[in-house]
Structures are given as C-alpha cells and as structure tokens.
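Handout, section 4.2: multi-component inputs.
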Amino acid sequence: MIAADSETSAGGDRQTQLLRGALDMCLLAMLAKEATHGYDLVRRLDAIGFEGVGYGTIYPLLTRMRRLGLVADELHASPAGPPRKVYALTESGRARLHAWREQWRRFVDTVNAALTDTIPDSDRS
Amino acid sequence: MDTVDDAVAGAEEEWRAYGVSRQDRVVLAADLRLDLQAAAADGVTPEQILGADVRDLARRLADEAGVLRAQPEYGRVVRTAMAGLVLGGCAGFIVVTIGHPVMVAWFDLPFRPPLWLALLVFCGTIAAPAVGGAVIAVRTRLADLPGIRRTANALILLLPVSGAVITPVMWWFATAVGHNPDLIMLIVAVEVALATAALVGAILLARMWSLRDGGHRGTTVAA
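Output:
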C-alpha cells in the first residue's frame, strides 16, 4: 500500500515526493493497458494501493500529459449518464512510457544495490 | 460546492481571478464539467472528487494546461497612469496659463464665445495632455504587461468619460457647501478625493475591460 500520508509528517512528505516522481509513469502504464476516463483511473490507482491519490492530483496530471501530447482524449458515449472523456496513450506517450520504464528499472536496481550494500552485517538475517 | 454547477462556477471564478483568458476558461470549464458530471453519474459528489479547495485545483489545472495568464497588475497600471495623468495635466495647465494671455494678445475674436465653448477649450487644453500623458506612460513604461495596448486604448475613452461624469458632481458639491473660507482646505481635499477616485476607477475599469477576454492571446488549451 502506498499512501499519500504516513505515520510521521516527514515520512508522509517523503512518500508524497516518491509518489510525485512515479505517478505520471503509472498513469501512462495504466492507460497503455486500457484507455479509460479520469475518475476510473483514480479508482484503479486506489485499487492497486495508491491510497489518497485523488482526482485533484490525477486530473492536473492528465491535463499536463495531454498538453505534452502523451495522451489524447475523446468523448465516448456512456450507457449510463453523460458522455465520458476517455484518455488513451498516443504514440509519443507509448515511447515515453518505454523510456521511463527502463529508467525506473535502472533506478530501482541502483537503489536496491545501494541499500543492500549499506545494510550492516549485523542487521542481515 | 453542492452541485456540479457550483464547483464549475467556483473554478471559473478562480480562473478569472488568476488571469486566464475567457477562451481558455471556456475550454477548462467544459472539461471539468464533463468529468464532474461523469462522476456524479456514479454517485460521487464534486466535493468528494475535488476536495474542499476547488480554487487550488483550478489554479493547478490552469498551470498544467499551460495557459498563459494575463497579469492585471492593477497597482502598477494605476500608479503609472496617474503619474502620466498628473504630468500631462500640469503640462496642459502651463500651456493654458502661458497660452491664454498670448492668444488674447494675438487674436481679437470678432464675437464673444459662449461660456460652454470657453470652458470646453479651457478644460480640453488641460484634459487632452493629461489623458495623453496617461496613455503614453502606460504604453512606454508598462510595455511588458500583456494587453497594455488595449488598456491604453480603453483609457482614451474612459478617462474623458470619468472626467465628464465627476465634473458636475464636484460642481454640485462645491455649490452645496458654498464658499466657506473656514472649510476651504476640507472642500479642496474632498474635491481632489472625488476626482482621484473617478480617475482611479476609470483606470481600473480600463484595465479590467482590456483583460476581460484575457487581453492577449496565449497558449490555448486543447479542446
């Protein structure tokens, strides 16, 4: 579970910063699987463990990604209620997601290596 | 923020205050309305989605959408326009003071001009350089501000109108209080305050008017 707030204020701030660095990539990844609307993205993020990431965070991010040409939106008729604005990845978004994914893997490997190397022998079980 | 309309209206108000052009506000509001309506169809209220601070979200949306905002800069505009107005008015007064005896000496009018014409020429000789001074000041000193040309054009119209409106009011006030020598300073202060309020109001109105559609064309958000 990745929550926007944590037990301590410092922990919460750190969590928020980590989230901020990865959320756009997560959104692109989710849209790569399936085009969907903004509110559904909020629900999906919540379902996979991004608690506390509200529409107020997602919607500006989607707006920015649309401005950058990473996602495109179009209106889809909804069986119930008004039409929905469905976001889908563009070619540029797909290429960016690929690059970000590789970058993230290298980053995680590096961080893991650093963490592993710095754990004192006494703490290892 | 009970309804979608309330939420969108709150956001629009913030975008307006934030200097987002009307054209961009329409697009942003339509986007927001669509999402809120879709969520409402799922039984989710605008407050649940946007949180309590819709204004903060509105600002972030405008920033992320990349809209260029027109900064009103009311303080700078008023100070600069008033400075130009006063300098121009002083120049006009000097022209009248020096020019009037010279004109009288040079020309002998074959008729006696009506009072209104004499007043018009007298006031116009002071007012025209005053308005010109304000316009030149904002055009030259505030060239970096968006929409400043439109503001200057609006000043050309609104400053004379404000002068025409406030002059009878000042006249009425002076007539009403009479020429009491004991109150002369107070009367002058009130008259100056009236004139200043009218002129500052005209300048503010000119600035608002010139920015009502954004005042400039910036990056327009995608529909």
